[in-house]
Amino acid sequence: MSHTAHIRSHRKPRRSSSKLALRAGVAGGVLSTIAVAGSAGPANAEPVTETIEMPALTFDTPELAGAVALSAEATQQAALDLDLQTQENAAAAKAAKAAKKAKAEADRKAEAERKAEEAARAAVEERSSRSAERTTLSSASQSASNASGSAATVVAFLKAQLGDAYVMGATGPNSWDCSSLVQAAFRQVGIDLPRVSQDQSVAGTQVSLDNLQVGDILYWGGAGSAYHTGVYIGDGKYLDAANPSKGVVIQELSGYPASGAVRVL
Q1: What is the rounded distance in angstroms from the CA atom of residue 265 to the CA atom of residue 220?
Q2: What distance in Å separates the CA atoms of residue 60 and residue 251, rounded to the nearest whole number?
Q3: How far lies 239's CA from each of 21, 23, 149, 152, in Å?
């Protein structure tokens, strides 16, 4: 073994090629800048006699490694936050869609219930209306029947007096004037008429002579100032206590047309 083998070499360890290249690049850039500045200066400038020692650049310091690690961690955290926000947005959109669908379904059910209630109410009202109509028709029919029966009673009484005498102011039973005979006839069905023809001509509802019914009271003269009354008995005829020469008779309405008529039945 050589006697010098134990002596440690004084040579500095070689730096990695990448570090050397980086330093060389930086140094070259600085020198180029200085050279350009020097060439742009005055011609009599002093030559550069000093050199600049460039700092050594390295990426294996603990501070830089820590910064890189923190940057990577921050990037990862940002990615996680973005993914979480995306999931939350998707969940919110899904919930809003479900709520909208539920509201639409609730509105549809409420509308269906409202229509059903309206239909049921309309059906009840229609049944009530029909029932009221039937009641009205029944009442009208009953009233017509009662009127018809009352009219028949009135006419029957009047015909029983045919041939009786006409005497002014007489009230029966064998002699009458026009208004006393009419009054007595309607008394048979519980209707109390005024005694004189003027009052009898306004005692009921005025009706047209074209719409006469059996039992209507006919009058001659103005309503409220009539001078004669009789009773329509159908077929264009009437019965009255005509005058002293005729007495109680049946006559054709066309032969002695009345001025008007009232209905009390």
Answers
A1: 20
A2: 145
A3: 149, 149, 18, 13
Dist. CA 163–CA 84, nearest whole Å: 118
Decide if pLDDT at 41 tops 80.
no
Q: What share of the chain is helix, strand, coil (3-state, %, to 5)?
A: 55, 10, 35
Query: Tens digits of per-residue pLDDT, 105-150?
Result: 889 888 998 898 888 888 788 777 766 655 554 554 454 456 678 9
C-alpha distances in angstroms, 200 versus 11, 12, 197, 227, 260?
A: 158, 154, 5, 10, 12
* ∠ Cα 179 166 181 (to 5°): 30
SS3 193: coil
Q: What is the pLDDT of residues 69-117, one digit of tens each?
A: 778 888 888 888 888 898 889 888 888 888 888 889 889 888 998 898 8
- Helices 62-160 & 178-187 angle (0-180, nearest 10): 120
The answer to whether the predicted template modeling score (pTM) of the entire model surpasses 0.85 is no
Phi and psi, residue 172, nearest 5°:
95, 180
